[in-house]
Amino acid sequence: MDIFETIVLGIVQGLSEFLPISSSAHIVFVESIYKIFTGTTVDANTQQQVVLGIMLHLGTLVSIFAFFWKEIWTICKEFCIAILKRDFSKPEAMFGLYILVGTFFTILVAYPLKDISEKLVTSPMIVAFLLILTGFVLFFSEFKSKHMKEHTNKLSWKTAIIIGLAQGLAAFPGFSRSGWTIASGLFSGLDRVTSTKFSFLLVVPIIIGTSVFYPMLEIEASELLTYNWTAILIGTVVSAIVGYFCIKYFLKFVAKFSMNFFAYYCIIAGLMVISFFTGVYATA
Fold first, then answer.
1. Which pLDDT belongs to residue 78?
2. Tens of pLDDT along 59-69?
3. Which among 52, 37, 79 has a CA at the least distance from the CA of 215?
């Protein structure tokens, strides 16, 4: 692992965490292709790479807090007040409750899939196929949303559960987390901006949880000292900066345009990756 690699991965993470194109898929693609051109086998996978992935996600978490700090502060404050007063009548308090509900159903789906999803990081062709499925999901969500008579900016228990389940399925690399959650919001009748904001904020507890508990459970502290932390931290900063501007301009995009552009991208990118690795394995 070197600084150039982590900068590239930081850019990829910052863009693809929020765009509905699957950050995990692009990390898998970039790492796999990078390993081919540098002479490293495609199936090489180390704990240092896992830690790098966690840190890159922490970078995008910083970008969420930087962009939505006012909303996050208000939600947390009103949620705590609501618990003390046992009154969740304020929308901000309910929003916090919906995030907890969505997170619960995410864990309910994602945890049993943990071992399977981790194995897929060494299978770029399977990940590419899942990315193509994401493209079709985006198409169908846009189609259904356009044919709905009304859209709402108000969440419900049902919507929070559906979006949480969708985020759980996105444990599979290739199933875009933002793509599946935003699409689920559109299927449920939410407008694009509300669906997108909820998608971005819903990931906060998951990133915090995986960033704290995964290293504690899976990685020995002594092993962490052997990692290239200079490169990892530079990649994390790049991820945070790119992620911030991605949030800013993507929210403006979804307010005016459909996500069919990203659907086309997912399908084309998936087909290109499948074609590329078919050639690589054929000549190996």
1. 95
2. 999 999 999 99
3. 52
The Cβ of residue 248 has, within 10 Å, a number of other Cβ atoms equal to 12
Buried-state track 81-115, b at ≥16 Cβ within 10 A, e below 16:
ebeeeeebebebbbbbbbbebbbebbbebbeeeee
216 phi, psi to nearest 5 deg: -65, -35
Residue 269 CA, distance from chain mean position: 17
Looking at residue 150, what is its pLDDT? 83
Which of 272, 94, 103 lies closest to 199 in space, CA to CA?
103
| Phi–psi pair at 137, nearest 5 degrees | -60, -40
Contact criterion met (CB below 8 Å) for 202 and 64: no
- Minimal CA–CA distance to 160: which of 83, 86, 95, 78? 95
Of the ranges 35-39, 203-207, 218-222, the best mean pLDDT one: 203-207
- Rg (C-alpha) for the chain, rounded Å, is 19
- DSSP element (H, E) containing 21: none
Angle at the Cα of 59 from the Cα atoms of 40 and 228, rounded to 5 degrees: 40
Contact 28, 182 (CB under 8 A): no
- Name the one residue in this structure whose structure tokens are 């090489």: 44
Put residue 247 in one of left, alpha, beta given phi > 0 → left and psi -120 to 50 → alpha: alpha
Are the beta carbons of 114 and 97 closer than 8 angstroms? no
**Residue 72 token pair:** 């996050």
For residue 165, give the H/E element and its range.
Answer: helix 157-169
Of 25, 9, 19, 12, give the one whose Cα is nearest residue 170.
25
| Phi, psi angle pair for 150, to nearest 5° | -135, 150
Q: What is the pLDDT of residues 226-250, one digit of tens each?
A: 788 899 999 999 999 999 999 999 9
The pTM is what? 0.88
Confidence of residue 99 (pLDDT cuts 50, 70, 90): very high
